[in-house]
Design goal:
binds adenosine-5'-diphosphate, binds magnesium ion, Rossmann fold, 227 residues, 6-stranded mixed beta sheet, 4-stranded antiparallel beta sheet, alpha/beta, 34% helix
């Protein structure tokens, strides 16, 4: 459903993603790993059209993702959660979710609260009073309000305590399993990512240097030779 062909993306003269091919099938959950500066964020930005210009092609179920046209691309069915805090701190949980669903006039928040019971009991609580993990779940919930077919996540577990890392990644896995949402998740936390994703790709200096089942990556030291 996501088809990336010959993608090259630059910042001025610096190529951040180089001639990258990646195909993600409907319903897959793919972890994107790699060192800092490997091009992971740039890859996600291209997939949603947030990077103003790129060479190559990005398609979602056959329709071209147009660079620079985020609002239009998102309507093709993409949810994007950038790195960091993506909630409105002064608004309540419910207000954050309602705001996220405004454009598509989403009324029923039930499915989101079903996914995140932690949020259901805190509907009136201001977002800034939530723990880091709960805020990240709210950000995920805000993306899921619009029922995207493709969910792009940039390091959702960064900065969280270990127990919450697992909880957030399990929530992502639940979205994938229960809603059938295709997920591309960038992660620094390699071990946690391998526990939830079935397929893993590794970027190095903007190039895709490995693509295979997550189960293989668990085998001893093999993972590290890809970096
Ligand atoms: N806004 C920017 N301006 C200039 N260079 C950038 C910018 N953002 C990222 N880069 C460069 O692009 C490369 C890839 O960055 P990025 O996609 O953020 O990698 P990752 O997410 O894997 O850490 C790096 O060399 C980085 O320095
Ligand atoms: Mg990044």
């Amino acid at each position: 459903m996501l088809e990336i062909t010959g993608l090259t993306a630059r910042y001025g003269g610096v190529a951040a993603v180089v001639d990258l091919d990646l195909r993600v099938a409907e319903g897959e959950m793919v972890a994107v790993l790699g060192h800092n500066g490997a091009g992971k964020t740039t890859l996600l930005r291209c997939a949603v059209g947030m990077h103003e210009q790129f060479v190559g092609e990005v398609r979602l179920s056959g329709r071209s993702i147009l660079p620079g046209q985020v609002a239009r691309n998102v309507q093709l069915g993409i949810g994007f959660v950038p790195q960091g805090h993506n909630v409105f701190p002064g608004l309540s949980v419910e207000q954050n979710l309602r705001l996220a669903g405004l454009r598509a006039a989403v009324r029923d928040l039930g499915p989101v609260y079903d996914l995140f019971p932690e949020l259901a009991g805190r509907r009136r609580q201001a977002a800034h009073t939530l723990s880091g993990g709960q805020q990240q779940m709210l950000a995920l919930g805000m993306a899921m309000v619009n029922r995207p077919r493709l969910l792009l996540l940039d390091e959702p577990s960064t900065g969280l305590a270990p127990a919450l890392v697992q909880r957030v990644l399990e929530a992502v896995a639940a979205i994938n399993a229960r809603m059938g949402t295709t997920v591309v998740i960038v992660e620094q936390n390699v071990r946690a990512a391998l526990r939830v994703a079935r397929r893993v790709v590794v970027l190095r200096s903007g190039r895709l240097v490995h693509d295979g089942p997550a189960s293989e990556a668990h085998e001893g030291e093999r993972l590290w030779q890809w970096f």
